[in-house]
Prior knowledge:
The N and C termini lie far apart (about 95 Å). The chain has helices at about 1-10, 15-25, 100-110, 165-175, 200-205, 210-215, 230-245, 255-265, 265-280, 285-295, 300-310, 315-320, 325-335, 345-360, 365-375, 390-395, 395-400, 405-415; strands at about 65, 65-70, 85-90, 150-155, 185, 195-200, 225, 435-440, 440-450, 455-460, 465-475, 480-490, 495-505, 510-525, 530-535, 540-545, 550-555, 560-565, 585-589. By secondary structure, it is α+β, with helices and mostly antiparallel strands. The radius of gyration is 40 Å and the shape is elongated. It is found in: Cytoplasm.
Amino acid sequence: MRCCACLSQQQTLQCSPSKMAAEEESNSRAPCLNFSSPGPLGNAQSSNNAHSSPATNEGAAGATGGAPRTAGHSNPQPGPDRGGGTDVRVENSPNRQHTTPQSAGQSATAARAPTVAGGASGAATNMTASSVESPNIPSSLPSSPASAAVLVYREPVYNWQATKNTVKERFAFLFNNEVLSDVHFLVGKGMGVQRIPAHRFALAVGSAVFDAMFNGGMATTSTEIELPDVEPAAFLALLKFLYSDEVQIGPETVMTTLYTAKKYAVPALEAHCVEFLKKNLRADNAFMLLTQARLFDEPQLASLCLENIDKNTVDALAAEGFTDIDLDTLVAVLERDTLGVREVRLFGAAVRWAEAETQRQQYQPTPENKRKVLGKALVLIRFPLMTIEEFAAGPAQSGILSDQEVVSLFLHFTVNPKPHVEFIDRPRCCLRGKECSITRFGQVESRWGYSGTSDCIRFSVNRRIFVVGFGLYGSIHGPTDYQVNIQVIHTDSNTVLGQNDTGFSCDGSSNTFRVMFKEPVEILPSVNYIACATLKGPDSHYGTKGMRKVTHEAPATGTKTCFTFCYAAGNNNGTSVEDGQIPEVIFYT
């Protein structure tokens, strides 16, 4: 009587295998089939959790042409707008001999397969016939009017294809859907594994890797494929793109989606991920994205990250993610000539990174271990560009440098000729664009002597520029080293705006040799400045046929920068507009 009551309410009777077997023995009744509660469409509700309890959809009748199909074959019809199906009752004679224990067990267990969540279209999903085990149900049903046990079949809605007007809509409907699926992926690790349905044809069309996986010479025949190295959210984003061309990425998933797109050779999705990263690139995440760009071999993204770090070096170094980068990324940054930060700050940032790295490698944060983890990065810090005060207050007392290195650097700051040091003394220039230069002489002659007096020339420009160095003539007696101090002085206030006490080597030719400032010197339009160079060394070449006005025209934009040179008052070691030293000015616009 209990089964008949269930039928009158159009509900399915839930029975466990053990309970049904017991009732069969005591009451000689046929066991009730175990149906799951119907979802919104009268079909099994789904869940992507691979550990969830499996739902059954055994015995659902098909609905082709309005005729019910034999139990054990499903015709899943997800779609929230399609409505429920029709119930079909099948009654057995009370006098019919009950099933054997084996058949009772098969009926009770019904066929189980894990359920999977529907796609982004909101469609509910059903179990496919291939993923379930058919129960032992007779192919021909008795026609006796009397019934002791009744099977209820939920007839799902069919013909979902008719509601999808385009190929894109039909494929989008199949995304993360059990309908017609012929493969499942177990994505993730541990309790986070998700069982995701897919369709071999759709995947092979969108990815050469999937094509080889399913159709290549060593194609897999498995219907379940484990992907422990892929995040479920990233894999779903990949499938979403392959099925519908829709891009679903966010700050939390973009890197894992980029990894997945690269793994399965979907360059279009890679490009969307890179574009997303470009739009969201900031100083506080530049180092983190640079690390990932190098890891995933994305040179364009890496270049943009480096440019951002150049422009916002101080903020990027202060970001929390800076100390998480790897040594190779740190080296790539320290090698750059375009960082906009003083060298003492770079040293401080490198020490912070070394402290974090010693913890990662489980070392004590001693100066020796900090030097050990810094490795080749240490020699890329340009200690000679610091002032002697900056060096004495920081690096000299850090314990990271050896005693010999500290002494040689102090000598470099204080004596001439300067001793050789292992660290780079080439200035960094934080300016963007192309380096420019002008030459103010038309001819080169020999023998220009030096007695400790500065060569000076006054100049002005028509637009704002940044002077980064001078080109100077070298010895007429073959290869020689010179000591030199270069300066840019504001004429009206006699303020030294930039200077560098350094040296250069020449090869005896009449070429000019570059001597650079430690930092760019800003030059404003229509303001008078004095360029000075005090050389210590043998006689050199010098320039003649000087020009009072020299114009530089940018090849790309046609922008003109006009220099006007004038005689500087005082003793200038003979340098003037017509002849002398300082033949070349190196600058950025």
